[in-house]
Amino acid sequence: NLDTLQGLADAGIPEIDYAVLYEKRIIREKGKLLKVLGRGKLSAKVSVTADAASASAKTAIEKAGGTLNIA
Questions:
Q1: Strands 47-50 and 35-36
Q2: What does the alpha-carbon distance between residue 13 and residue 31 come to, in Å, rounded to a whole number?
Q3: What does the pLDDT look like over 26-40, one tens digit per residue?
């Protein structure tokens, strides 16, 4: 969710992918698909790599000046 991405950005992590989320224990199982959802607010410029994203999440990431890479 966007609020989780914002929390990571506030902690100084501008590039977010599966490995970062696993390392920070946000994702607890390997091998699952990663979909970014639009709950919360995002104001930080981040680069996100995920398997999928909701339309609202994609719009919010791009509006904040970030990028979304669908792998």
A1: unpaired
A2: 22
A3: 999 988 899 999 999
